[in-house]
Amino acid sequence: MRTLLETPDRIVENGKFNLGVFKSPFRNLNMLDADPLMGGAAPRALRRLRLKDWQHYAVIHPDFYFGTVIFDAGITAKTFFFAYDRRTGKLHEQRRMLPPGAAKVAESLFDGRSSAKLPGYKLEYENHIDKGRHEIRADIAASKGIPALSGRFRALEDLSKVQPLIVSLPLGASSAMYSHKVVCPAEGELKVGGESVRLDPARDIALIDVHKAYYPRRFWWKWANFAAFDSKGRVIGANLTDNLIEDQRSWNECAIWHGPEISLLGPIKFEFDEADTKKPWRISDHDGRVELDFTPQGLKVEDLNLGVFKTHYRQPLGLFNGFLVDDSGEKHPVKDVFGVAEHMDSLL
Asked: Model's pTM, two decimal places?
């Protein structure tokens, strides 16, 4: 069984990644101090171009699902903010592609700031994990039939009340990926056109995904993320992934959240129709701890083909049903819990 490790001050020491699953956030995410490209000879600027670096926040509300990202891919950058109306199935998305260096992604979750700013489009994230919160602000004008999206919300990541999933995992002999994921209450107010949506931390949940990785040119993943309050008032959720890591029994980012606790899982199996990701999915593990059916209700699509750069991305949104079993053996029913899945295959 994998265990949570004490967190070193730096993720990279003497040019090498500290690997494992960690108890607390890294204060220094010095990814650029590692050189997985040329055995120590790659200039820092080249490492920066190969590093994939993003912060993603989402909110589950009874009427809406909100999602936003600031993603610096080195050779390019992108950002989006969308509102999926669960009542109508309508997806309102504002998306922008940016030149290299135009998006800023925070290095640290301790007083770190991410931003993407263009005329009529502004996103800002402030990370104050030592104070138990991340603040997301959006001010995006209406365009091309898409309503204005604005407001602010806070993801309340109180480390005394929730254990985040913090991993540093090998991607080959000298490369690695870092991720910090958690589910936690959300508060604030957002506007979709003229409709105001107030977030209640006793009801609404934020999903956080912070990621930095030296992926090879082709990388892929299958992913599911969802959470809800159970009958005891606990946040119950999961992060489930299948990706290009070869030994997923030893190294993965799959876990269950149950109240303030986290339970680490083994490999996850995804079964779905890649040609039509709006058809039902089946998600399970090899140990009898995860059995889920996922029924998509909406779909976010992104396709990019620039010859040497390609992205095939599908994010269905919908309902999970089944069960999760934590480390103590407690079985947590999952009944009509809203969340997302993803199928990504990218060449960058």
From this structure: 0.96
